[in-house]
Amino acid sequence: MMNDLSQTRPPSAEAIARALTQAVHEHRVLPGMKLSEDEVGEIFGVGRTVVRQALRALAHQGLLTIERNRGAFVSRPSVKEAREVFEARALLEPRTARAAAERTTAYDIALLERHIDLEHAALDADQTGVALNLSGQFHIEIARIADQATIADFIRQLVSRSSLVIALYWRRRNALCESHAHHALVKALRTRDGATAEDLMKGHLLDLLSQLDLRAQPDAKLSLRDALGR
Amino acid sequence: MMNDLSQTRPPSAEAIARALTQAVHEHRVLPGMKLSEDEVGEIFGVGRTVVRQALRALAHQGLLTIERNRGAFVSRPSVKEAREVFEARALLEPRTARAAAERTTAYDIALLERHIDLEHAALDADQTGVALNLSGQFHIEIARIADQATIADFIRQLVSRSSLVIALYWRRRNALCESHAHHALVKALRTRDGATAEDLMKGHLLDLLSQLDLRAQPDAKLSLRDALGR
DNA sequence: GCGGCTAAAATTGTACACAATCCCGCCCGT
DNA sequence: ACGGGCGGGATTGTGTACAATTTTAGCCGC
Question: In this predicted complex, what is the ipTM?
Fold first, then answer.
């Protein structure tokens, strides 16, 4: 699975950050893995300077944790951090969904429905990682529809960390639960029903939280590099 | 006003970021100002590498805006962004204040009251910038008391941007309004009155927002360097 | 005088070399 | 055999040189 970017021009730090982010969101790179500067640089064909920019950007976003003189590791949120992520989402997303409902256009609806279709397609193809990533982007899309760039940015970070939380604490693997919740949300948005959208989002987040197992302690020692398939 | 760090060891990127952040929060460095890498590096006695880390960190936080091949500038939030900042704060802070009320310890109360004293002292000394910074930190302190690290981080960013918004859109200069609101909040926290704390915080944020003039277009071309007093 | 073009100066972007730090295996002593 | 200390290897941290880009000043022509 060669990245087509490497053929043309040296990818920018943002491009590398995006690629790594997607890999983490799709659970191809798991919490605890180390991202060596040399390794990443060689993979993407850039010097360490650019890699460091990307890694530090992801660290500021909470996706990576940089330990001085040790390197960058995919974050492993503690149980407390996991709860905090969903508590923050509970504060931000329901109201945002309500605001989105009052601003949704027909084009937005089409986009969201197409998004859900992609989720289904990924699930049918047994690409749960891809489906999970799309599922997260659905929430970001709603924040975008609400026309709240600042909040959307926060939600993006929270969804990102949620991906880590799910990787660590998810209970069972059959993740086909979300589809209906998302579909119901789209319906509420289509009918401009802000109150329902807010309630649905709140319930949806509680649902997600309830499917986590926040007792166990995470542990893992993981290899690397081939998880990206390179 | 020499920074005592420069005498001992080269300050870290975090230290530089903190110093710059404080300077911006205290309105000694104003929105639109350019932060040249060489200049900052010379001031703090470090190479550009470390400066870049600090600048990029602040950019990720929203305090600076980095334009490629042009440099780092203190962000100048648009009117829309200004509204978004306070809308995000309205979502996060009231609930957080309620949570804080239910967890406040006697030590926290003492800390907050001492904090308010410092605000008063700064105001009496006509150091409105310092007072403003302390006023912002008060909000961060409440998030810390609520024991919500994730949300506290978001609030920290929002308070930071609020400082920029105030620099651009503040209506009148006599900023002695906050003291009472903060004092009332502490009282609610002391009595473990979460509902009142939530209401007070909500009102306080609306109050702040109402004192902004969000019609005018900001513009300024500002000198630099001596604003830091170096 | 004014607009556009050109070149030089200044500033940021990137890579690389070297220093600092950490990790791990080895060795030695008990 | 086991624990502590030591040293080699590997990885990250930082400064610096050079490349790319932008900006600005100067100049010419109109």
Answer: 0.86
